[in-house]
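Notebook entry, structure prediction.
Reason for the run: the old model in the group folder had no record of what sequence produced it. Starting over properly, with the input documented here first.
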Amino acid sequence: MNRAQQALYEMKQTDELAMMDSPVHRFSALSKLMVTVIYIVTVMSFSKYDFGGVFMMALYPYLVFQLSGLSFKLCMYRMRYVIPLVAFVGIFNPFIDRTVMFQARFLSVTGGMISFVTLMIKGILCLCAAFLLSGTAPVDEICGALRRLHVPSVFVTVFLLAYRYMSVLMEEVAVMSDAYHLRAPRQKGIAFETWGSFLGQLLLRSMDRAQELYAAMQLRGYDGEFRQTGNTKDRSVSFVWFVVWTAVFLILRFVPVASLIGNLFVRQL
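New structure, fully documented this time:
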């Protein structure tokens, strides 16, 4: 399986995960989308030194992973290319901010260390929230939720078509890669001098497939407007899901829950 086939498999696997049946999957996509947006905004609003507050925000993905039946291991595997980028953003913090925050035995913990770890946790939590949204709501329902939020139809349609066309593009890349390696079995990759012709053929094949797809869409009545499908989700329960998590996020943001729990353990000891 080449990389294009692996990417195509992961895209199809995400669609299959979104079609599972669990308590979280039964909520409306609008409520899950709003909760995800509020969660990401809340996580990013914490101070770069507020390690405890950011850590407490892990409550949401932990519970949703348990309720939805999605695998946290699979989530981390999907983020294998993004986490190093998040680490690279804050990797120089320990060298820039050398202010000693506290002393842990023989280790002086600086502000740069805390901000680096906090940044990593923020990135991982936001990526987990995005994975949970895509793994519990099909892309069609997400697009329908965007239209209910009055996002312009042209943007929603472009997003949906781009997502759908990615699988077509990956199929073409996979077929062309297999054909190339059958003609050059000893090469580990595509030779640099053939990149131009490879990309040109990919563009031509993709344009042909795009024309066929567009013709098929027109035969099915597509007129440039995104049509929402009927929503059979329980809106009342979905609204409760939205209200409860919004209240939890506000409490975790403005109440020092981590400090209160730490003080409670200290008093017991």
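Summary: The beta strands are 100-104, 107-110.
The old model has been moved to the deprecated folder.
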